[in-house]
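The pair is listed for reference:
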Amino acid sequence: RELKLLSQKTSIPLSAGESELTSWGCRSLIDEQSIDILQFDCTMTGGFTEGRKLSALCELNHVQVAPHHDCFIHAHIVAGSPAGCIVESFTDPERDPLQAELYENPPAIKEGMLTLNEEPGLGLRLSEEAVAKFGTRVL
């Protein structure tokens, strides 16, 4: 509710959604016209298919998509939608060592641009070394 009130009092584009754990929470941000940019995280809100659904909902409601974290997964959603805006990327291995080591073949990021791999699916292969190092437990 407060975000909606703020959106009515500013011309600055507002974004939210990265802390939503369900697509229903993201949907209410869109339905209430509280935001201009949705920052969902499909690794937390139901997976890639749910992310595509949220992206389509954003497209229908003229809301941009700028997903939270994991650019290697979210880049596909952004690239595949007219609502796609930008992907968030943490390229500092000290800040996010898991992201830096998780995939054997991460997409290249050069001069601020990410180039998707052309391999099947998301084009990513998990690093067995990273899985052994960081474990398989997810909280």
In short: The chain has a mean pLDDT of 92.
